Amino acid sequence: PTPSAAAEVVSRNQQELLRQIQNGQQRLEMAMDYFLANRTRRFTQLHHRLQQQHPQLRLARQQTVLERLRQRMNFALDNQLKR
């Protein structure tokens, strides 16, 4: 081929290579965004779960349940004594 035809082929090859690189870069960025979003969501879930299992929080919940049971018991005893 003539030098200008060869240059045109090289130019087309370079443009195609550049397009492929840009497509690959875009796919990689999308994959990284997806990966990071999943890791962030998982971290948030685990952090929330860990907070829910904190001993002070568990104790507070158990104390609330105990208080409700105590109130129910007192109510039942009052009803029995009134009969």
TrEMBL record:
Residues 1-82 form the Exonuclease VII large subunit C-terminal domain. Its EC number is 3.1.11.6. Keywords: Hydrolase. It is an enzyme of class 3 (hydrolase). GO terms for molecular function: exodeoxyribonuclease VII activity. Coiled coil: none annotated. One of its GO terms (biological process) is DNA catabolic process. The keyword Transcription regulation does not apply. One of its GO terms (cellular component) is exodeoxyribonuclease VII complex. Pfam families: Exonuc_VII_L. It comes from the Bacteria. This is Exodeoxyribonuclease VII large subunit.
